[in-house]
Design a protein that fits this description.
Layout (H helix, E strand, L loop, with lengths): L14 E2 L21 E9 L5 E9 L7 E4 L2 E2 L2 E9 L1 E12 L4 E11 L7 E7 L6 E6 L2 E5 L2 E3 L5 E3 L1 E5 L11 E4 L5 E3 L4 E4 L6 E9 L2 E9 L14 E8 L2 E3 L5 E10 L5 E9 L6 E7 L8 E10 L6 E12 L4 E5 H6 L5 E5 L9 E8 L2 E3 L5 E10 L6 E9 L6 E7 L4 E3 L2 E10 L6 E12 L4 E5 H6 L5 E5 L1
Parallel strand pairs: 12-19, 21-28, 30-38
Antiparallel strand pairs: 1-37, 2-6, 2-10, 3-4, 3-7, 5-6, 7-8, 8-9, 9-10, 11-14, 13-17, 15-18, 16-17, 18-19, 20-22, 22-25, 23-24, 23-26, 26-27, 26-28, 29-31, 31-35, 32-33, 32-36, 34-35, 36-37, 36-38
Organism: uncultured Gemmatimonadota bacterium
Keywords: Signal
InterPro entries: Big_2 (IPR003343), Invasin/intimin_cell_adhesion (IPR008964)
Length: 481
């Protein structure tokens, strides 16, 4: 615990709203984790070209004393790091992405069995909470990192992808890599990862895949085209069917699930994925699911299914589909609004019963950190942040997160604390997190740009630098070499 004394405050002016860029990747942030045979797995998420500035990994299970929380660094457009997880079945791995303002942009989870030996590589889709572009995380003993993540090639030109195969400790492996293109009409790839642009037409996009030891990594190639050749694929998929069941849920006693079924057709590069989002009656909280066609499979039509889980204490009333987005293998996408779906005869309303709905966002009651000055000329330094947070709703605090910004604004670092509180209860407790300032980080005055607090049903508040200062909290950190 910090030795600072807290100032407990009332309301503050605020804005409602497979890994972070600090370097505390290998230690779970939650206290009291049960440790059996420990497995080490690696998570890799490509975030180049997205607004993502920080990501977190959370592991929960019935036999773990508390949630395990990990912060993983983003480097060269890839968030990657090693997680130490007690071996066992039914481990729920949840990944969350945040932008530089502390707003959660993506979320995805999967229930996995983790062994003390080799773990097969699986993919975890992070669905967009803002915008349309999903993220895909690789989770397993072996992962593949692609460099670069994206490239733009004019017709007739070539460039090369590099694929690095990493073990669970992040060490390179001397493994042969196989390369494939999902649309050879747009771009070809040889056995060394050299990509040759064939035909861009109206501006096509193709996924290039590298595989090794059961793991895969992807990069994307855009071929703008010069207007002299026909369009390879400039048309987004269309929806041929849409439904969900049941039409009513009851989350009074436990979480409940709705299954979405969607038909999509694409005459060009083939159907790739669909994302469906429901929003609560106040239009403040969204719940999404994504269905994908397996990598390497090209189909002109597909029936896609996915599950949306509404947690206990979710808002009561009429939830509506806000958007349905479909995407093809060339990167063309199309979004359908609630009105567009209803005009096509599709049902969009989901009735939710909740005896104890939680529609109140948590409140930050105390905030402190130390030290407020670090010298990182030869060694990295740690800063401990402490949050005192309350939640008047029944779901309890899920997460507290702080973002600090460099003097130039070019770098953002983050850490978060959640799960079992260091003191107090999930409704009124104190959490800590440790942020590492890297060696030779930018010198000068860094700013606490924002603090975000959220509960388990998705209510959240973000406090900007000015909000924190108005409440009497320090927001400046001095970094020297």
């Amino acid at each position: 615990m910090l030795r600072h004394s807290f100032r407990r405050i009332g309301s503050i002016p605020l804005v409602l709203l497979a890994l972070a860029s600090s370097s505390c990747a290998d230690s779970p942030a939650g206290p009291g984790a049960t440790r059996g045979d420990e497995a080490r797995v690696r998570v890799s998420v490509a975030v180049a070209g997205t607004p993502v500035a920080a990501l977190t990994a959370e592991v929960t299970a019935a036999d773990l004393a508390s949630r395990l929380l990990f912060n993983l660094p983003i480097e060269n457009g890839v968030a990657t790091g090693s997680l130490a997880i007690p071996a066992g079945s039914d481990r729920t791995v949840t990944l969350r992405a945040f932008d530089a303002a502390g707003i959660e942009t993506h979320r995805g989870s999967k229930v996995l069995s983790v062994t003390g030996g080799t773990n097969a590589t699986v993919s975890i889709s992070l669905l967009p909470l803002t915008g349309e572009q999903p993220l895909s995380a690789s989770f397993g003993t072996v992962t593949i990192v692609m460099t670069p993540q994206t490239m733009v090639l004019q017709q007739g030109t070539s460039s090369q992808f590099t694929a690095v195969v990493l073990d669970a400790e992040g060490q390179g492996m001397a493994e042969p890599v196989r390369w494939a293109t999902l649309n050879p009409a747009v771009a070809m790839v040889d056995s060394l990862g050299v990509v040759s642009a064939v035909d861009g037409g109206a501006g096509a996009r193709v996924e290039i895949v590298a595989t090794a030891r059961g793991a895969s990594g992807s990069g994307w190639v855009t071929v703008p085209g010069d207007g002299t050749q026909g369009s390879t694929d400039g048309t987004a998929p269309r929806i041929t069917a849409f439904s969900f069941t049941p039409g009513a849920l009851d989350v009074s006693a436990a979480d409940d699930t709705v299954e979405v079924t969607l038909g999509a057709a694409d005459a060009g590069a083939g159907v790739a994925s669909a994302i469906v989002t429901f929003r609560n009656p106040a239009n403040l909280i969204g719940r999404s699911c994504q269905a994908t066609v397996p990598t390497g499979t090209v189909v002109s039509s597909a029936t896609l299914r996915c599950l949306i889980i509404l947690p206990r204490h979710s808002s009561a009333g009429a939830w509506y589909i806000s958007t349905v987005s479909v995407r093809d293998r060339a990167g063309n996408s199309r979004s359908f609004s609630r009105i567009a779906l209803e005009n096509s005869g599709y049902r969009t309303r989901l009735d939710v019963a909740s005896a104890t709905p939680d529609d109140i966002a948590p409140v930050l009651r105390g905030f402190a950190f130390g030290p407020d000055s670090v010298a990182v000329g030869t060694v990295a330094q740690s800063i401990t942040f402490t949050f005192a947070t309350t939640d008047e709703g029944p779901s309890g605090i899920q997460f507290n997160r702080v973002f600090i910004r460099s003097p130039s604004g070019a770098t953002t670092l983050s850490c978060g604390g959640g799960g079992t509180p260091d003191s107090g209860t999930p409704q009124d407790g104190t959490w800590n997190c440790v942020l590492t300032v890297p060696v030779r980080a930018e010198a000068g005055t860094w700013t606490v740009s924002s603090v975000q607090v959220s509960d388990w049903v998705g209510n959240r508040r973000t406090y900007a630098d000015t909000d924190l200062q108005a409440a009497g909290y320090r927001t400046r950190i001095r970094v020297t070499h």
